[in-house]
Design goal:
By secondary structure, the chain is mainly alpha-helical. It is built from 9 helices and no strands. The two termini are 22 Å apart.
Length: 200
């Protein structure tokens, strides 16, 4: 199986299960309006991330090979930092702090919230962008494999999480903690992989 497929799946999974303002917003909407009316909000990153990816790729594609190696090394260190943060969240896990929203929001409102969230910019500049560029330079098919697997896992995992919270809030919290623990292992593994790639 392609390493780019595995990286896309692992990083997409990790991005989906990490607590943050976007996932809190999605959970809030689901608990308020039900899964059937809000599951489509999980597709919001497909709307918001396009310009972010384009900007990151324009910058990254101009970098010489030696600088890309350095960026891969920095990417690995940053992924390990994310793994440490995820571990601390797993260790000190508490239920998501969900606030009652004023009214139902659209997928475009969810996309705007995601676009204003700094994490996609950091992710595509330091983590997923360099991987996508490396795969694309080897073969456009590898780059497409990475990005398709990343968003398939991201959206799929978000939909599952929302379904779990909709079914039972307590079950959702327990499952979220377990998924967060899995993301710690995945992030640590791929952080080390990126460091080795940058070092070599």
């Amino acid at each position: 199986m392609s390493i780019y497929l595995l990286q896309g799946l692992a990083l997409g999974f990790a991005a989906a299960v990490q607590p943050g303002p976007f996932i809190v917003y999605l959970v809030t909407e689901t608990l308020t309006h039900g899964f059937r009316k809000t599951w489509v909000l999980a597709f919001a990153p497909l709307i918001s991330d396009g310009p972010i990816i384009a900007l990151a790729l324009v910058v990254l594609s101009q970098m010489p090979a030696w600088l890309m190696n350095g960026l891969n090394l920095m990417s690995g260190i940053f992924i390990l930092y994310l793994a440490l943060g995820a571990y601390r969240q797993w260790r000190d896990f508490t239920a998501l702090d969900v606030q009652e929203p004023a009214a139902r929001q659209s997928v475009f409102r969810a996309a705007l919230m995601n676009a204003l969230n700094p994490m996609p910019y950091i992710y595509w500049s330091l983590v997923t962008g360099p991987i996508l560029i490396a795969g694309w330079r080897q073969s456009p098919m590898l780059g497409l494999t990475f990005i398709i697997s990343f968003y398939s896992m991201l959206i799929g995992a978000l939909v599952v999480i929302l379904a779990l919270f909709s079914a039972a809030r307590n079950l959702g919290n327990q499952v979220s903690r377990a998924l967060l623990g899995i993301s710690v292992v995945a992030l640590a593994g791929f952080g080390l992989f990126q460091i080795i790639r940058g070092w070599l």
